[in-house]
Design goal:
heterodimer, A: 108 residues, mainly alpha, two-stranded antiparallel ribbon, 2 strands, 64% helix, globular, B: 504 residues, alpha+beta, rod-shaped
């Protein structure tokens, strides 16, 4: 078990939460989501988010619509559902708890 | 200049460089493989392809319309390795490794790419990671010997699935299914197709099968060469190191070995050692050549050092042949000149002569009567003398009214003197009593004289009307021959090792 592996596992763990948060603010297509993550300097292997989006959609946390694009193929805009919002608030709570717990432990 | 392929991704047309296309295709195939366990994998792939379209479009400009390999490499790097895609890997690392192991496990597939009939042999070869030709040769052997090869082939053909996808083909070979392998696999396939197309143009389609058959035949010949080489090797080892007493001639009560026999042929021990050295070199060279030939036929391996080895052992063979020839020439020279000596044995009066072989038959030892004469073989060596058997009788017309008996010895030698000396050294026992001659059927010469075609003849001059009896049978003039050819007189007789008389 090397550091990189652990780091990537950590990132993957919070990715779900991040995606739901992004979509909670505004609907977006995958490239936009990636752009947002990139701006936030969250290093993600791009490929990881596609299975995740599909899984979240299959869990009815996300929905999507097709929209024409001025350049290239139509875009798949993902939106958060009511279920997704409820799920997100649960995650938010967990995240806050975790953050507090971790900072409490590491600053002791 | 590069070949291009025109494709469309999610309905958007692109012009790809061939290599770029191969790479992308490999990548997508690999993703499909990794994601197939995922629910909604088609959707995920669609999302990824959409993303790819975007990324590719970003790279194209009005001056750069063709998608190059480097573009695809960049995109692949950005999207990540297929292993990272599976959402399952987020759960635990155990499942990840389980998936990993599963992908490595070898499976038996039929190999349609290298098939001659059903691809069974090619698949088995891939499974055991050996050259397909070896499996085919074994199959042909089992088919020819027991026929079970045929049955086994049909069964395997029916039961073993054909490797259809790239990942099947990799599992067939037991390789880790990853993007690098996939790349080489697809590269190989592209090469095969290119090569195949070329060959198809050059020859006819059937010729590749003919080539395959020839290949199998060449492997069978190769295996035969290996077996033959091994045979020579075993024989050479026995010849030089075991040196068994297998020459059917007796030496001091035992059979002779090759070396013993060689000692009776060569004039000097140095000639003998050249000869045996030559035999040794020839053996080594033949064994090596057989192996090299076999290996080259079986593996189609064309390394330059194989050629060098072939040349080296070719030279070894030539040197060996030269040495053996030198030995042969020495023997030939020491047998070049013929010498003959004769000795008057007896002059016998009367009109008949009885010849008898000296026999121990009828003698009594401890009350037992000996029934057989005891055949000691063609060659017997004891007490420094070589004993040979078989004596020739030559009849001729006497100039007077007496029987004249002469012993004639002949031998070969390097010089006339040495030939005469060897002839004089030949000894044959006989006794003459009035008109009875008792002969031993063997004669001897010293072992130091070597084998130089030593012979003994008894020349008998017969007076007019004289008769000769051997073992109480009339042998001259021949009664049987007289009725057939009345005017011809029978000239030669021969007493062989067992005392049997025959007409020469």
């Amino acid at each position: 078990m090397n550091v990189e592996n652990t780091q990537s596992q950590m990132r993957k763990g919070i990715l779900e939460y991040c995606i739901l948060s992004i979509l909670d603010k505004k609907e977006a297509y995958p490239s936009e989501i990636l752009e947002r993550l990139d701006l936030a300097q969250l290093k993600v292997v791009e490929g990881t988010i596609y299975p995740l989006l599909t899984r979240l959609k299959n869990m009815h946390l996300l929905d999507y619509r097709w929209a024409e694009s001025t350049s290239g193929p139509p875009r798949k805009y993902y939106t958060i559902t009511e279920e997704g919002k409820a799920f997100l608030s649960e995650l938010e709570r967990t995240w806050t708890e975790l953050q507090q717990a971790v900072s409490h432990i590491t600053t002791l | 200049m590069n070949k291009t392929v025109s494709i469309h991704l999610q309905g958007v047309p692109f012009i790809f460089e061939e290599q770029a296309y191969d790479r992308l295709n490999a990548y997508l195939q690999q993703l499909k493989q990794v994601l197939q366990k995922e629910e909604g994998s088609d959707e995920i792939l669609q999302d990824i392809e959409l993303r790819m379209v975007e990324l590719i479009q970003q790279q194209l400009t009005p001056f750069k319309q063709v998608v190059e390999l480097s573009v695809i490499e960049q995109i692949v790097e950005k999207l990540g390795q297929p292993e990272d895609f599976s959402d399952e890997t987020t759960a635990t690392s155990e499942t990840a490794s389980a998936v990993h192991d599963d992908s490595v496990e070898k499976r038996l597939f039929r190999d349609g790419d290298r098939a001659m009939i059903g691809g069974v042999c090619a698949g088995v070869a891939a499974y055991f990671n050996v050259d397909v030709v070896i499996i085919r040769a074994i199959y042909v052997f089992t088919f020819l010997t027991f026929g079970i090869g045929f049955l086994l082939y049909i069964v395997l053909w029916a039961l073993v699935p054909l490797a259809k996808t790239s990942s099947d083909k990799l599992r067939m070979k037991g390789q880790h299914v990853n993007i690098e392998n996939m790349k080489s696999e697809l590269g190989d396939a592209a090469d095969r197709i290119k090569k195949g197309a070329k060959e198809f143009k050059a020859n006819s389609g059937i010729q590749s099968t003919v080539g395959g058959v020839l290949r199998v035949i060449s492997v069978i010949i190769g295996i035969w060469a290996l077996l033959f080489g091994t045979g020579i090797f075993v024989f050479a080892i026995i010849f030089f190191f075991v040196n068994p007493d297998i020459i059917p001639a007796q030496m001091n009560g035992r059979f002779m070995s090759f070396q013993d026999f060689g000692g009776l042929l060569f004039e000097s021990s140095s000639h003998e050692s050249y000869f045996f050295l030559g035999i040794g070199l020839i053996s080594i060279a033949l064994v090596a050549q057989c192996y090299l030939f076999g290996i080259r036929l079986i593996t189609q391996f064309k390394a330059s050092y194989l050629k060098v080895l072939t040349a080296i052992f070719g030279v070894t063979l030539v040197v060996g042949i030269v040495l053996v020839s030198m030995g042969g020439v020495q023997i030939g020279r020491s047998m070049a000149i013929y010498g003959e000596v004769e000795k008057e044995i007896a002059i016998i009066s009367g009109d008949e002569l009885n010849i008898e072989k000296k026999s121990i038959e009828g003698q009594t030892i401890n009350g037992f009567k000996i029934k057989s004469n005891g055949d000691e073989g063609v060659v017997t060596i004891k007490n420094g003398r070589v004993y040979l058997r078989g004596i020739e009788l030559v009849y001729s017309q006497s100039t007077d009214s007496l029987f004249h008996l002469k012993q004639v010895n002949d031998a070969q030698g390097r010089t006339h003197e040495s030939a005469l000396k060897k002839a004089r050294n030949i000894h044959c026992n006989y006794q003459v009593h009035s008109n009875k001659v008792t002969l031993e059927t063997m004669y001897s010469f010293p072992t130091k004289d070597k084998f130089r075609d030593q012979n003994v003849k008894f020349m008998i001059a017969v007076p007019l009307g004289g008769k000769i009896f051997y073992d109480k049978q009339q042998v001259y003039p021949s009664i049987i021959e007289e009725s057939d050819i009345p005017n011809e007189t029978y000239q030669h007789g021969y007493i062989s090792s067992d005392g049997e008389y025959s007409k020469w």
